[in-house]
Amino acid sequence: MNLRELRYLSKSDVQSLGLSYSEIADAIAKILRRKQNNAAWNNPNSTISPYEGTRSISFHAAALDPAFSVHKTLGLSRDNSVRNLPHLGGLINVHDVHTGHPVAILECEEITGLRTASLSLLASRYLTPRRPAQTIGFVGAGRQASFHLEAFLSEFDLRKAILLGREGGSCSRLADECRSKGLTALVTPDWQEVLRSAGIVVTSVPDGPGFKPFLDASLLSEASFVAAVDAGRSWTPSGLGSFDELVVDDIPLHNMKPYVTGVKPDGDLTRLVCGTPWSRGSQRSGFFFTGIAIADLAAVELALQKAEVMKVGTVLQR
């Protein structure tokens, strides 16, 4: 590694690498095992909200293998749709842990989308009921819904999608995307129909003024898995006791800034990966999460390995 150079990977560069959700999920599991052995570390996210509807978020993680630290800075604005901009933007800075010197910079929208859906996919390997899910439900139809559609299609034999919303806008675009991938797609304004019909439910509802949770987990089908990308803000605390298993991404970080209220989480992703497997029968399970930097680190390692082999990206002199 030439520490006098930086490799820059743009969004299109990352897309050209052909990273798969399954390999990212495998890499996350691998680094979580290293974290369990005190060879990888993950700090709490730090958030500042300069204006209403905006957030500036910082993520930080490091490991001995891969010998990298990553620092991701991410900005979000709910008004970006009217500006014809993605709702988030940011960069990932990568440093060599031995020297402290920077080695790479990555545009983070694609990496963030891939790693977030891969986190859900990894959790689903442990939490989905034995009966394979064939229907996926979406509450929220933005980019994360698209990433999750691709991720779950990579390991599940999905036949149908049911989307909460009304025809038009992002909901219709997601429905068309589902149909283009061979699924039948139904758009409904009835959230109860989504919960009762789907074996996998993905919620990715953005926060906003006056937002109140409205989804009741007691109405989920008896054999179902929820990936709450929105940290569970869509779900009423009073209904969370209906989950047989409710897991967060990182218990120590969750305990610093709890986002699951009403019940105590049963564990976290590290426990799933490193703990004793349990029987999966007909059960309701949930993975509520905010995203962890150690997952970014796992995805970044894969991206940089492939970029070097494929000679993708722009090499900058320091």
Automatic annotation (TrEMBL):
InterPro entries on file: NAD(P)-bd_dom_sf, ODC_Mu_crystall, ODC_N
Name of the protein in question: Putative ornithine cyclodeaminase
PANTHER family per the UniProt record, alphabetical: KETIMINE REDUCTASE MU-CRYSTALLIN (PTHR13812:SF19)
Molecular function (Gene Ontology), one example: hormone binding
GO cellular component: cytoplasm
